[in-house]
Amino acid sequence: MGNGLGFGPNRTHEMKNRKLGMILLSLGGLALMASAFLVNASPYVTVAQAKTMRGDNLHLAGDLIPGTMRVRSSELKVEFQMKDAEGATVPVIYAGTPPANMGSATKVVAIGQYQDDHFQARQLLLKCPSKYESTDKGAEAGAKKDAPY
Amino acid sequence: MPPTEGHQHTAPVLGVPPDWSLWVGSLGRTFIFLAVAFFLATTLFWVLQPRRDRWGRWGTLSFVLGCTSLFGAFGSLATLFINQRFEFAYVYGHSDAATTLAYRVAAVWSGQQGSFLLWACCSAIFGLIALRSVGVDRRWYIVVYALFLGAISGILAYESPFLLNLVDGKPVVPPDGVGLQPSLLNYWVTIHPPTIFLGFGSLTVLFAWAFSALLRRDLETWVRPIRPYAIVCMTLLGLGLCMGGFWAYETLGWGGFWAWDPVENVSFVPWCITVALVHGLYVQAARKKGAFANAMLAGCGLLSFVYGTFLTRSGLLGDTSVHSFAEMDRSALRILVGVLGVGILAFLVTWTVRWRAARKLASAAPPPEKTPFHREAFLSAGMWLILATGVGAGIGMSVPLVQALLGQAPKRVEEHTYHLILVWLYLPLMVVMGMAPFLSWRAQGGKVVFQRLTWVVVSTLTLLGIFLFWIRLPFSNYRLDPKESITGPFGFEFGQVPLMALLVGVSLFVLISGLWRLLETWKRSFPAIGGMLTHFGIGVTMLGLVVSRGFERSEQFAVPEDRPVRAMEFIVEREGRTKQLFDRTNEELFRLTTDRGNILMHPGLYYIEQDDGRVQPFAWPHVHRFPLYDLYLVVGALSFDDPFTREFKVGEEVLYDQTLVKYLGMRMEGQPGQVGTKFIADVQARVDGQEYRTSAVFEMTEQGPRRQAVRLTPTLLVQLDRMDAGTKSVTLTLSSILAYYPAELFFKPMTGLVWVGVGIMSLGGFLAAWSRRRLRSPGSSSGSSTADSDPKESESSEGPALEIDHASASAR
What we know:
The structure holds two protein chains of two kinds. Chain A is an alpha+beta fold. In chain A, 29% of the residues lie in helices and 32% in strands. Chain A folds into two domains: 1-41; 44-140, CATH 2.40.50.140. Chain A has a five-stranded mixed barrel. The two termini of chain A are 45 Å apart. By secondary structure, chain B is α+β, with helices and mostly antiparallel strands. Chain B folds into five domains: 14-185; 195-358 and 372-399, no CATH class; 414-551 and 752-777, no CATH class; 559-623 and 630-639 and 743-749, no CATH class; 642-737, no CATH class. Chain B is 49% helix and 18% strand. In chain B, α1 runs antiparallel to α6. At the A-B interface, α1, β1, β3, β7 and α3 of A face α8, α12, β3, α13 and β6 of B.
C-alpha cells in the first residue's frame, strides 16, 4: 500500500479513498442495522389485519372487555374477549398461566396468530391502572411476561 | 402536628399543615430558583472573565452556590419525606405512613420530579469534583456546565416536587399518602438509582470538558486529567446497569437480568459510548491519535442520555409501548428538547468547525502499519464495535419514534430481535477484546501474535470442550436440542448448538485473556491491573449472562391447593403461606421434591386494595441459589377455574378439572307444571381413584325455578340448570372451588458468575481510575505516574499544540 515514503500526491489520494471507504462502510453498516431493526420489529395489528396476516408473531392490541375473562388454571388456559381500536372484537385464547395482574388489566397486547375463529396468543402484555403513579420501573413490573429468548 | 379534626362526613379528614413544613417547601422552591439564578450568573461572569480577572472568582463562587442550592433543594425534599408531610403532592404520591425511613429517603427519587432532582444533584457533585482537575479548561467548562445545570434547574422549576395539595386554594394534609409503588419496595431502590445517576452526572463532566477543549482549540491537555473521570463514569454506569439487572431479576419476576427495555437502553447507550471513549483516550495518550474522535465521544455520552430521557419522558413511547411512562410537564419538556437541540447543534457545529480548521493544518500522516496486528488497530476496531452496539440499541429504542415520524403504524422491537442483531457485533467484539491486550503498539506479524495467544486459545478451547461435554452429561441439568435452530434477521437460520458454543467460547476467551494479562501485569506493577481486572470481570459477567440465558429452562404450571403437580423434574406441592394475603411480606410456601431431596421455596404474593375497591396482586420471585445454578419460582394471583356449563345426554362422561363427571339419569318428584315439583339429576364423579355420587335438584317454587349447586367431590360443585323431559338430557354447570396458583419455574445455570463478574468489573474500574488519578491540574508535573502496562505510552501533558488525527508520526 502506498509508496514507501508515505508522502506525495499518491498517498493523500489513498488516504482520501480510505476515509471515504470508512464513511461508506459505517453508513452502510448503520443502514443495515436500522433496516434489520425496522424489518424485524413487530407491527401492532387490528383484528381485521390479524385475520389476513400470516405469521405467529402478530401483536394484536386492544382493550380487554371487562367480565369476559375465563381462567382455566387446570388446563393452563385463559380466554377473554378483546376489542381493537376499530371496535372489532375477537376471542383470545392464551395458553399459559394468567399473568399476575391479569384481573385488573385494561389494555392488552396479545402476541400470536389468528386461528379459525379466535386469536391464539402465546404471550400477553398487559397494562393495568394503578393507584400509584406509574413510574417507569413500576410500570414495567408485572406488565411484562416475556417469552425467553 | 395533630391534624385538626374536621367535621365533614363525606370527605376524608383533612388537616392543616404546620408553618414549618410550608416554610421548608418554600425553601425548596426558592433553592430551585436560586440555582437557576446562580447558574445564569456563573455563565455571565465566566463569559466576561477576560475583562476582569476577579469576575472569574465570582463566577466560580456562583457555580458552587448554584450546586449548593441544588443540594439544598434535595435536602428540603428529603426533610419533607422523612417527616411525612403529605400536604405536598409529591410526598403524598410516593410514600405513606407505613413507609420506613430508608424507603422514605429512596422515595425522593421514586418519581419523575425527584429523579430529575437527583440527576441535577449528581451532575453538580461531579461538576464540583472535576472543577479541581479541569485546569486551563476551567472557563468554558464552567460556562457549559452552568448552562446545563441551569436548564435542568429550569425543568425542576416547572416539574416542581414542592407543589402542595390544595383545597379551595388552601393547603391541606391528607390523613395518609398513597404509598411507594410496591414493586419499588426493595433494597435496590436505595442503591441502584443513586449509582446510575452518579454515572449520568459524570457524563456532564465529559461533555463540558470536551466542549471546552474544542472551543480552546486544544485537544491535548485534557486527555490525561479527564481519563479517571471517564473511567469512573464508565464504571458507575456499568455498575448501575448491572444493579438494575439484579433488581429486575430479584423482584420483577421476568426471569432475567436484561430485557432491552427502553429504560434500560437509555442507560446502555451512554455506557457503550463511554467505553469507547475510555479506550480512545488510552490510544490518544499513547499515540496522539484520535483527538477529534474522543472529543466527539465525550460529547455524545451526555447527548445520547438526554435524547433517551426525552424519548422515555415525552410520551412518544407511551402510545406504542405497553409500558407507561409518566409524561412531563409541557414547559419542562420544551426545556429538555431545547437542551437536546441546542446541545447537539452547538456541539456538532463547534466540532465540525474545529475539525475542518485542523484538517488544513494537518501534517503528513504516518505510513500505515505493515500488518493489522498492533494494539491501536485492535483498540479502534473494538471502539467501532462497542459504538455500533450502542448505536444498535439506540436505533432499537427509537423505532417507535421513527415509525411515528414516517407516519406508519407503531411497531414493537422484541427482545430476541436485539439479541439476533447485536450478536453479530458481540462475537467480533469479544474476539478483539481478548486479543488486543496481547498486542504491542508496534505492528507485529500474525505469526508472532498467535504464538503469544497460543496458551490462551488452548485454554479457551479446552474449557469450552469440557463445558460442551459437561452439558451432555445427564446429571448436569443442561438441555440443548441439537436440532433446534434460531431464525435471525433477514431469515438466516443457524443451529442452537454452534451458536451457543460460539457465544460461550468468545466469553471464555475474554475471561482467560483478561486473567492472563492480569497475572502478567501484577508481577510488573500492581496498580496497573485495573484495566485487565475489568476485562476479566466482563468476561465472567458475559459468560454468566450467556449461559444463564442460553441454557435456561422454564415451565409454566398451576399448583392446585390440595395436590402436588409435576413441573420440570420436580414434584411441586403447596405448603401454605407465611402471613395473610393482604400483608406485604406474605410468602407462599411450595415444596419442590426430586428423587435427590427437596427444597422449600417461598415466592412472595400479596394483594393491594385499589381505590375502586378492586384488588391488585403483586408477586415477587423466590430465587434459590445453588453453587452452579438458580431455581427461580414466581407465582401469580390465586385463580379458580371458571364454571363450565354443558349439555349432557344420559350416560355421557366429561373430563373437567381432572375429574371424570358422568350424568347417570334424571328423576322427577311431583307433577310437571306444579309448584313444588323437583327434577333430580344423578351425577357421578371419579377422581384420584375415588368415586362420588350426588343429586342436583331443580325445584319449581312460587318465585320461579330454584337451582342449587351441590357438592359433587370435595372440590367440585354441580348445578342443574335446564332439562329436557323428553330426551332426559340436562344442562349442568360444574364449578371448581379449588384454588390454583399459576406458577413459572426457571432453571438458570451459572447466574453466580454474573454477580461475581460485576463485582470484579467494578473493582477493576475503580482501581483503574484510582491509578490514573491526577489531583493537580496539568502543568504541574507531579501527577501520578503513567499507570499503563505499556511503558511506551508517552507522558507529555504539556504542549497546547492542536493535535489531530494522524498528526503525529513520532509516537513510536
